[in-house]
Amino acid sequence: MNFSDKYFQFALGYHHGKEVIWITFDKNNELIQFLRQNTRARWSASQRKWYVADNKHYRQLFGLEEKITGKEVISKIHLVNLPEFTRFQEHLKLKAYSPNTLRTYSIAFAQLLYLLKNFPVQNLSPERLRSYFLYCHEKLQLSENEIHSRINAVKFYYEQVLHQPKMFIDIPRPKKKQTLPKMLSKAEVKKILNQVDNPKHRLMLQICYGMGLRVSEVVNLKIADIDSHHKTVRIEQAKGKKDRMVVLPEIILVDLRNYYLQYRPKIFLFEGQYGDAYSVRSLQAVFKNAMNKAGIIKNVGIHGLRHSFATHLLETGTDIRFIQELLGHNSIKTTQIYTHITDVQKWNIKSPLDML
Asked: GO biological process: any one (predicted)?
């Protein structure tokens, strides 16, 4: 039996002000037991039916369409442009873009539609489109990355949906800033980990640094991805829809086994409140809190652990091509940015001031 069988019916709704998925079925002790074993469903006495939180995990489990944008986005779009917004999202789905890209593009495209109000987006001239991006620069003062996101989304609509590539011939892109990755020293990483008392939180940060994972990859790890015998971990469908294998640090094997025996996760290695994947924001908050406790005042987010992983491997002489594979970079050029931080020979150069 599974949730795609005819026994269960699902409906989206609200309960106590939160988005939920209602689950209805004919009363049957076997079905109730199955529901309890595979979800963290709760019974609503007022509605007389079961429900779970409306999230990515349960939508996938129940075979429901994944949520791209909330009502707060749709409600601001004029009825004139709503069909085009729907068409835009459908085209993104047909292209099999990732949920994050779907959400980012949808919100960026919606920003243009808000301003247009009842003016049809498909009737925009290249000059008006150019004025819009100038408005993003001068009035909204958006960052280079934010403007790139809006250009990418609007460009997708005109070139992929409307097949009008000439709309963007005279619209220049802002030059991206060339920044170096923000990283931590080995001593700082150790200091941060020592501030985390919760074994689950500590293990998540250890994995983030010890395997060079993105925070989204850490929270989406499944029990089936861990191969403790061969000391490898499968990172499934990460950025760019690619699978890759990474090395499982030996030092955490005992902690990993103890964690499993204590928490008994079912699908995801690190479960959230309702048995779904642990929240990215919650793990970011764990890292930030540990940073504060450790007294480290660097402006570094949890992604800095991934940067530190690559930097520290380079410092110990690991071949950059292996680091590229472990990080899941398409191009070696992306990985080479770490050589600007770890060029030992360059840092051994003495300043002329020291030789006066």
From this structure: DNA integration
CA distance 110 to 102: 12
Residues 107, 126, single domain; the answer is yes
User: CA–CA separation, 112 vs 88, rounded Å?
Assistant: 13
- Count of H-run helices and E-run strands, the chain: 17, 7
pTM for this one?
0.69
List pLDDT tens digits, range 286-323: 999 999 999 999 999 999 999 999 999 988 888 999 98
Which H helix or E strand runs over 286?
Answer: helix 280-294
Same-domain pairing of 114 and 23:
no
Euclidean distance between CA atoms 127 and 274, whole angstroms: 50
- Domain limits at 81? 71-168
Residue 117 contacts by C-beta under 8 Å, 6 or more apart in sequence? 78
**Residues contacting 41, CB < 8 A, separation 6+:** 23, 35, 50, 51, 52
